[in-house]
Each structure stands twice: as structure tokens, then as C-alpha cells.
Write a structure and sequence with these properties.
This protein is an alpha/beta fold. The strands form four sheets. Strands 2, 3, 4, 7, 8 and 9 form a six-stranded parallel sheet that branches. Strands 1-12-13 form a three-stranded antiparallel sheet. Strand 12 and strand 13 form a beta hairpin. Helix 3 crosses helix 4. It is globular, with a radius of gyration of 20 Å. The protein starts with a strand and ends with a strand. The model has no long low-confidence stretch (mean pLDDT 96).
């Protein structure tokens, strides 16, 4: 909204979210680390690739998918989001449009029935897509989709269906970016740190210490909102629906969300309740 600076819930200036793919056993350990440090995130699942119940993996296998039953136990009511990752993890842009739609809609339907919720988020399998893929996402009712592009910035997304992350957890700039995010305060905008990866990579690379160190350092800060992907998306969408008078003095909140903002150059924090009109 022109003339005001968006702030996150309770006036926080920064938001942090994580996004991890494939629904593998290592997500359990990752979630324990996240929970211990108060972090929130989104787990992107391929519902067409659950292994049969009772599956055992050979020694040395790293990519160990959870069964449907175990996935239900792990992610249900966890405080984290479940999102689409394609029914069978295909290169969506290489499929005919009707097959791409099936991959998206069937995965969404399966996950909604499995977790008794509404699924609106996604991460692109392999990070690949084209304009037709994006069009399919819109038709499938998906609100955002994460790519594998690292922006190395904290800018709020301009295109939620081509969503860039700040970085992957193996990025050599990870802790430098984390330090900047924690120690600096955005003044003319709000920041979002978006971390992504696959939890099995920590086992492959024997570097669980990377996420342990990151989570311990970046968790527990009063000016950071720890949220899932969809929580941040929904808040930003609500903010963008604020209605403003021609002279900018009156603002009306038509949404069901309490929204926060500051005036440029000012320190005072304002909030506007659902259905409320604010006048400056």
C-alpha cells in the first residue's frame, strides 16, 4: 500500500521461513531442530511416490521416503505446512498440459484428503518450469510455487508463482546472510529470509551442524516472525487488499486479518483491525 510500510504480525520487521522437499525420513530430525529453535516451514510432498508400508532401505541409501502412514504421523498438526511437489516428481514443463494438470491436481487432492486441510502451496520438482506450467498452477488453485533460484536477498516476492529463495542451506553465504538478517533492521521495507533444501542432503554431506548452527543463531529473535510459506503469503495478500483514500489519509481493512504498518520515517507502529478504518 503506497505511503505506508508493511510490518508483519505484532509489528515485526522480518519474517523467516523454510522449505524442504520430497518427504524423506530426515525431515523428522530437521523438524526437531526447527521446533527446538522456534522455526516454521513447509514440507513439499509427492503423494504418488510413497513407498509401500514396511519398506526397508538398503544400507547406505540416503533418499528414504516416508510411507503414507508415517508421513501422516510426522506432518499432521506439526505446526508446519504441507505443500504440493508433483504427484510423481516429474519435469512438469516437459509434460503435455493435461498431464501437468493431473500431476498438480492429483497431488493436491491426495494431500488434502490425507491431512484434512486445504493445500495451496508448491515447490517445483527439480526447480524447472515454463509459462505453461505457471498457467497450470493458477488453474489448479495454487497460490505460490518455489523455484531453486537463490536471490541472496531479503526482498519480498514480486511473483509468488516464480518464488525465489534467499539461498540453499549449502550456500557458502548462508551464515553471512543470516548475520545481516539478524543484526540489521530494515527501515523502508520488511524482509523475508527464505531457506530451502532437502533434509537428506544433511546426511549425504554429513553436515547436520549447518542447520543446527543456523537454527540456533537465527531463532528466538523478537523482531522476526517465524512462519510457514502460506502464512507469509496470506499476510502479504491481506496487506495488499487494504483500501486507501485518494489523499492517503484514510485506510480501510476489508480482510479478516489484523494488519500492521509504519509511516515512512516514523517510529510509531500502527495496526488496523478487520473492518476498521484508520485515519491519519
Amino acid at each position: 500500500m503506497s505511503g505506508f510500510i508493511m510490518r508483519f504480525p505484532k509489528g515485526k520487521t522480518k519474517a523467516l521461513t523454510l522449505s524442504y522437499d520430497d518427504g524423506v525420513e530426515q525431515d523428522i530430525r530437521l523438524m526437531e531442530i526447527m521446533d527446538r529453535n522456534g522455526l516454521k516451514g513447509t514440507f513439499n510432498l509427492n503423494s504418488g511416490l510413497y513407498p509401500p508400508e514396511g519398506t526397508t532401505y538398503p544400507e547406505g541409501a540416503f533418499h528414504r521416503r516416508l510411507t503414507a502412514r508415517r508421513a501422516t504421523e510426522v506432518y499432521t498438526d506439526s505446526g508446519h505446512e504441507v505443500a504440493v511437489h508433483g504427484l510423481t516428481h516429474p519435469f512438469l514443463e516437459k509434460l503435455p498440459e493435461h498431464m501437468a494438470m493431473w500431476e498438480l491436481l492429483k497431488d493436491r487432492e491426495n494431500l488434502e484428503n490425507q491431512f484434512h486441510t486445504i493445500i495451496r502451496g508448491m515447490a517445483y520438482p527439480f526447480g524447472t518450469y515454463n509459462d505453461t506450467t505457471v498457467d497450470c498452477l493458477e488453474k489448479a488453485g495454487l497460490a505460490y510455487a518455489r523455484t531453486v533460484i537463490s536471490s541472496h536477498s531479503f526482498d519480498m516476492p514480486k511473483d509468488w508463482l516464480r518464488l525465489e529463495a534467499t539461498c540453499h542451506h549449502n550456500d557458502p553465504e548462508l551464515m553471512g546472510l543470516a548475520k545481516k538478517f539478524v543484526e540489521e533492521t530494515p527501515e523502508r521495507s520488511s524482509w523475508m529470509f527464505y531457506l530451502w533444501g532437502h533434509s537428506y542432503e544433511f546426511e549425504v554431506n554429513d553436515n547436520w551442524d549447518v542447520i543446527e548452527k543456523f537454527a540456533a543463531y537465527i531463532g528466538g529473535h523478537e523482531d522476526i516472525w517465524y512462519a510457514t510459506n502460506i502464512q507469509i503469503y496470506d499476510y502479504v495478500q491481506a496487506w495488499q487488499r487494504l483500501e486507501c483514500s485518494v489523499d492517503g489519509r484514510r485506510v480501510y481493512n476489508p480482510t479478516a486479518t489484523k494488519l500492521y504498518f509504519q509511516k515512512p520515517g516514523g517510529e510509531e507502529l500502527y495496526s488496523i483491525l478487520p473492518g476498521e478504518c484508520f485515519e491519519s
